[in-house]
Amino acid sequence: MMAARTLANTHASPIASHIAQLLSTASAITSCLQTLNPQNPNPTSPTSTSPLSQFAPFLSPNLVIEVIKSQKNPNHGLFFFNWASNLNPNPNNYFHSHLCYVAITDLLLSHGLFSTASSLLESHGRLSDFSVAKFIKAYGDRGNIREAIHWFHRAKNMGSGRCLFSCNAILGVLVKGNRIMLARAIFDQIVKEGLVKPDVYTYTTMIRGYCKMGMIENAKNVFDEMGCKPNLITCNTMINGFGKKGLMESAMKIVDQMMETEDCMPDTVTYTTLIDGYCKRGELDEAMKCMDEMASRNCEPNVLTYNAIIYGLCLNGNVYEAKRMMTRMRLNGLKDDVATHTCILKGLCVVGKLDDAARLLKEMVGLGMKPDAKAYGVVVNEYCKMGKADDAISLLKEMKGRGINPCVSSFNAVLRILVESGKRDRAALLLKQMKQLGCSPNCLSYSTVIDGLCRAKGRMHEVEEFVEEMCQNGHLLDASMYSWLVKGYCEDGNTDMAVRVFHEMLDMGYVINLESFLAFVKELLSKEKIFEVEKLLGEMSRRCPGIDIYKYRRILDEHQQSTGVQEGRLGCNGTDGRGYGG
C-alpha cells in the first residue's frame, strides 16, 4: 500500500521523522488526487474515492493543511477537503480544525473562486469576521474595491457587529489603492458607531496611508490621537513619513519619545530611515551620528543602512568615502548588492567620471551580479547628458540581451537627445523598436518624436502613423501635441488638415500655443483664408474664455498689416464690426 510505504519507520529524531512522514504522506495524497476527477466537489461514490481511503487512518489537521497548500489546482484541494469532511468510516474521529478552513479559504480565494469559498464557509457555519477579512483583502488585491467594501458592510451586519479584522482589512485595501479619504470616512464611521475599538494596526494603517499620500500633518494628528500605545511599526511609519518630507527634526521627536519607553526602542529600521532622510537632505554629518549611535546601542546596521549612507556620499560626489564605506560593510560580514553598486555608479556620474561608471557596470556583470534597469539607467542617462546617443542605445540593446526590460525613462532620454541633435530618423526608428526591446512607449515617448517630426517638412504621414498607434495604446493627445500637429500641417502646406486639427483641438477644450497660431495665420493668409482664421479666433474666444485672446488677435493683426491682407474683421466676441456673427 502507498500509505504504508510513505509511513515507513526512519532512524531520524522523532520530530524530524514526524515532519518527514507528514510531507511524504501529503505528497502521496497529492499524487493520488491527480488521478481523480476534481470537477466533482462532493464525492460520494466509494469507487471514486477508494484511492484516498487508505489515508483515512492517518488524517490530522496538519496533514490536511499541508495537502491543501500543496495543490496547484484549487478543485483538487476542495475535492480533498470535502472528502475529509465526510469520512466513512472515520477511524480516528477526525474533524477539520479552524486552520484547515483558513487553508482551503486561502487556496480558493487565491484563484478567484469567491462564490465557492463563500458557499463552503456558510454551509459549515464558518463565515466570521476573520474569514470575511480574507475576502476583503482578496478583492482588494484584484483591484475590486467596490466588492471589498460590500464585504465589509456584510461583516458589520454579522452577529454582534464586531468586525475589527474586517475593518483593518478594508482600511488596508483603501490605503493600498490610494483611497485615503474613503479610508478616513470608514475609520470615522466605525469610531462614531462604536462597532469596534481601533487597535494599533488600525491606527498604523491610517498613518501609513496619509504618509503615502504626503499628508504628513494628517498622519501626525492620527498618531497624536491614538487610543492605544503605538508600537515599533507605528513609530517607524511616522518617522518614514517625516523623512520623505525632509522633516528630520519632527522625525527625531518621535525617536525621543521612543527612547522614553522600554518596549518600543529604536531598531535598525528606525536608524536606517533616519540615515536615509539625512542623506537626502545632504546632512551627512547627522547621518554618521546615527551610525555611531547605532553602534553604541548594539544595533547592527544592515545592507539597507549602508546603502543609504553610501547613496548620500555619492550624491555629494564623495565616491572615495562611499567605497570605503562599502569596504567597511564587507568587513562587517554584509555583502554589497546591486543597489550598493548603483549608488557608486550614480556617484561616478555626479563627478563626471562616465568612463569609470561604464567600466564598473561591466565589472558588476563580470562579478556575477545582475545589474537591473535602474543600474543601467544611471549610465544610459549620463550618456544622454553627454550627447552619446550611440553608447546609450548600445546599453539598451545589451539590457534586452540580458533579459532586462529597460525603464521607459531611459528610452525617453535617448529619444530626446536624438531629436535635439536633429537625428529624427533614428528617433522614429527607436520608437518603433521600443516594444521589441522590452518597453512600451508612454505619452512622453510619442510626444518627443512627434514634436521632432512636426518640425521637419514632409514627415506628417509618419506623424499620423505614430498618433494612430499612440491612441490605440490608450494615450491621448494634449494641447502641446495638437499645437505641433497644426504647425506641422501648416509647414507642409496642408491647410485642410491644419483647420481640421484646430477644430478638433477646440472640441477637446485645448488652446493652441502662440508659436503654432502664428504658423497657422501665415499659412491661411498665404492662401487668402483670412475669414477662416477670424472665425476660429472668434470660436476660441467663446469656448475658451480664460485665455488672453488679445495676444492671438495681435498676431493676426500684425501679420495682416505686414502682408497687406484685409478682410471683414471679426471682433473678439466672434461677431463682425456690425454685431453679426461670422
Explain what you see.
There is one protein chain. The protein has 582 residues and is an all-alpha fold. The protein has helices spanning 2-6, 14-33, 46-53, 61-69, 74-85, 98-110, 114-123, 129-141, 145-156, 164-176, 180-193, 200-212, 216-224, 232-244, 248-259, 268-280, 284-296, 303-315, 319-331, 338-350, 354-366, 373-385, 389-401, 408-420, 424-433, 443-454, 460-472, 479-491, 495-507, 514-526, 530-543, 549-563. Residues 4-10, 41-49 and 568-582 have low confidence and may be disordered.
Radius of gyration: 33 Å
Helix content: 55-70%
Oligomer: single chain
Q: Beta-sheet strand percentage?
A: under 5%
The N- to C-terminal Cα distance equals 96 Å
Summarize the structure.
By secondary structure, the chain is an all-alpha fold. Helix content is 68%, strand content 0%.
Write the layout of secondary structure elements.
Elements: H1 2-6, H2 14-33, H3 46-53, H4 61-69, H5 74-85, H6 98-110, H7 114-123, H8 129-141, H9 145-156, H10 164-176, H11 180-193, H12 200-212, H13 216-224, H14 232-244, H15 248-259, H16 268-280, H17 284-296, H18 303-315, H19 319-331, H20 338-350, H21 354-366, H22 373-385, H23 389-401, H24 408-420, H25 424-433, H26 443-454, H27 460-472, H28 479-491, H29 495-507, H30 514-526, H31 530-543, H32 549-563
Helix pairs in contact: 2-4, 4-5, 4-6, 5-6, 6-7, 6-8, 8-9, 8-10, 9-10, 10-11, 10-12, 11-12, 12-13, 12-14, 13-14, 14-15, 14-16, 15-16, 16-17, 16-18, 18-19, 18-20, 19-20, 20-21, 20-22, 21-22, 22-23, 22-24, 23-24, 24-25, 24-26, 25-26, 26-27, 26-28, 28-29, 28-30, 29-31, 30-32, 31-32
